[in-house]
Amino acid sequence: MAKERDPATIARRIVDKNLYIAVATADQTGQPWASPVFYAHVGYRDFFWVSEPDATHSRNLRERREVGGVIFDSKAKLNNNDQGVYILGVARELPAHETTEGIQIYSQRSVELGGNQWTVEDVRDPSGHRLYQATAEALYVLDEDDHRIEVPLSDL
Q1: Model-level pTM?
Q2: Cβ proximity of 69 and 47 under 8 Å
Q3: How far is residue 25's CA from residue 2's CA, in Å, rounded to a whole number?
Q4: Helical H runs in the chain?
Q5: What is the biggest distance separating any 2 CA atoms in the chain, rounded to whole angstroms?
Q6: What's the confidence (pLDDT) of residue 81?
Q7: What pLDDT sits at residue 146?
Q8: Domain residues of the chain, as ranges?
Q9: Which of 13, 29, 64, 66 is the most exposed place for a label (fewest CB within 10 A)?
Q10: What confidence score (pLDDT) does residue 2 get?
């Protein structure tokens, strides 16, 4: 497979180029819910975002940690072979004592892209936001025939 078709290269390019991940969760009955959130990542495997604890996806994560996600360019033209990165994993609200590293990563990307600076105080009680982390257990991209290809996490 040529370098430009290497699944890990494709996945890294897509994750670096985009701003939002559509986080897919489900409640205890299995009712699905998807939410677009701004993200930052570490190693293309750990994804961080900030949300309100009462948002539907946040409540769902308290019931079920399983999460799906997709990162893609929503402004891509039709038939241009732009793809997405499909993620399966687990996610959780980080407890206050575990937020320091994640919020630094999130804040750095936010500031680099013209957003707000975030601190641990911004994602702890009594603030209205919390820090969440999804850890990918599997990542996929599509090949030129739209067949799913698993990206070895060790290649990222």
Answers
A1: 0.94
A2: yes
A3: 35
A4: 7-17, 56-63, 100-112
A5: 51
A6: 65
A7: 84
A8: 3-155
A9: 29
A10: 43
Question: For the chain, which residues score pLDDT lower than 70?
Answer: 1-4, 79-82
Candidate CATH numbers 2.30.42.10, 3.40.1350.10, 3.30.930.10, 2.30.110.10; the one for domain 3-155: 2.30.110.10
Which pLDDT score, from 0 to 100, does residue 80 have? 66
Question: What residue type is 91 in one-letter code?
Answer: A
Residue 9: burial class (beta carbons within 10 Å; 0-12, 13-18, 19+) = middle
Q: Which of 122, 107, 116 is nearest to 48 (CA)?
A: 107
Are the CB atoms for 46 and 64 separated by under 8 Å? no
Residue 121's closest CA among 108, 104, 135? 104
Residue owning tokens 């702890």: 124
CA distance 119 to 114: 16
Residue 80 tokens, joined: 């241009």
Q: Are 132 and 58 in contact (CB under 8 A)?
A: yes
Say which amino acid occupies 9.
T
Cα of first residue to Cα of last residue in the chain, in angstroms, is 16
Tokens of 41: 């990542």
